[in-house]
Amino acid sequence: MRKHFYEEVVETSSISLALADMDLTHEERKHLIELVEDNLHHAILDAVLSELSDKDKEEFLILYARQDDEKIWKLLRERVDNIEEKIKKTADDLKKELHRDIEESHKKSK
Amino acid sequence: MPGTKSPHYEFLRDKWIKKHKDLQATLSKKHKKSFEFLANNTKQLAVGSLGGLILLASPIQTEPPKHTQSQQETNTQTLGTIDNSAFLIADLGKVLPDTVRPLTEGEETKIDEILSSKFGMKVSEELNGLRLNRSYGLIGAEQHLARYPGDNMSTHFDGNLDDSTKYYSSGMAPGLGAWGYFATSRANMTDEDSEREKYYIATQTFLAPDFNNKVAVYRDFFKYRKMLVVNPHNGHAMVVVIGDAGPAEWTGKHLGGSPEVMKYLERVDGRGRGPVLYYFIDDPDDSIPLGPIEPL
């Protein structure tokens, strides 16, 4: 699986650990982690694209399809202020939501 | 299996799939123009890897990975408004090897599932226990086939100037197709006969497993058997019939396509050949028309 360009600034271990404490089979846990990653992926893509002009979006998507992470970061740093922070915040906000879902799941099973 | 899954899992799965759908819808709505630009310009932009498109498509998996059947059934839940071909290309790209070689049983099964799901029909590399030597190979250009005694390049297009302009230069094969003429005479030729010639492929029927011991069975099975041919690089697909046997092994090609098939698939590159998937269509009622078909 491709390493996402944003993986250096986004981590999901807290959710993986929370899921590890639940009564789940290996496949179920793996599937939920994939869903977490899919959710983060689309949230981050939306956040990044929303910061770019139409022309820059196209340039970003071409680099993205070519998996040229170095040029992606160069483009984003040149065109968007504090892009790392913006990506981190998007990921953190979503992770908080996902943690709340996990808590809700615990409450429901009591 | 219903009832055996953890309640935590079911709760979170449903919640996070819904969240994912919402995020996809937002992404698609807000940046539709940009995604379409990428999907429509993949070739021109020399985007060699499909990895990026795969990630953009990122279909929702609604079951754990081991449940491949249900996973594929729901893989159509994607960024709905983006060109469906891009998703087809992406999904196929996950399974197909980098080199053109016979697919493994596991790969063939995954392709079955993808194509059946994307085109809304049952396709398979094997039907009634019979199959070809491969389901992924290099297709090369064939010539027009004579449809009835006396059919030649001046009669072949039935007065259709557009078709004549596009396809005249391919010429007519000196011999008949593997099943002889498509009709006994021009007067007896039906639309079905004409379409079978127009949308035909030649496959290496003679290399089918155990062919020598099942010649009669294979002959009846292969004759005008409907197949789905897909160019995995642009998503172009066509419902065709097996209209001829070939090409010979020494050519390095694995199947051939009529001029109409090759043009639509855009499969002829500078070397005169390119890879395609070719799978049998299970169509017992003969209800699926021949010709180009779009993914759902």
What does this structure look like?
The complex is a heterodimer of chains A (about 110) and B (about 300). By secondary structure, chain A is mainly α. Helices cover about 75% and strands about 0% of the residues of chain A. Chain A contains 5 helices and no strands. In chain A, about 35% of the residues are buried. Chain B is of the alpha+beta class and about 300 residues long. Chain B has 2 domains: about 5-95, no CATH class; about 120-295, Barwin-like endoglucanases. Helix content of chain B is about 35%, strand content about 15%. Chain B contains 9 helices and 10 strands. In chain B, the strands form 2 sheets. Chain B has a 6-stranded mixed β-barrel with strand order 4-8-5-7-6-9. In chain B, a hairpin with a 6-residue loop joins strand 6 (about 225-230) and strand 7 (about 235-245). Chain B starts with 6 loop residues before the first helix and ends with a strand. The interface of A and B includes residues 31, 50, 57 and 58 of A.
